[in-house]
Amino acid sequence: MRTVIAGRLVELPGTIAAIRAALDADRAAVFDAEIPHVPVAELPVALARWALSTTDADREDAELFERLARGEDVRE
Q1: What does the pLDDT look like over 17-52, one tens digit per residue?
Q2: Cα–Cα 20 to 30 A to 29, which of 16, 17, 60, 67?
Q3: Domain-by-domain residue ranges, the chain?
Q4: What pTM did the predictor assign?
Q5: 3-state secondary structure of 22
Q6: Sign of the torsion angle spanned by Cα atoms 30, 8, 65, 47
């Protein structure tokens, strides 16, 4: 899986094992508790969310929302 973050192409972990390996111990424990209980239809979205959490995507989104809250025009 790939996405663009901060203008750069980023390779995301592409398996359940790779996502788990990219997490610190505390987050891996939460992942282990959550994933077995995710309904099959929702599993791709949950895995994508966890894969993105291993990147700076959340920080980039937070910065964008802060700019929007300040009333900035964020169209590029």
Answers
A1: 999 999 999 999 999 999 999 999 999 999 999 998
A2: 60
A3: 2-69
A4: 0.74
A5: coil
A6: negative
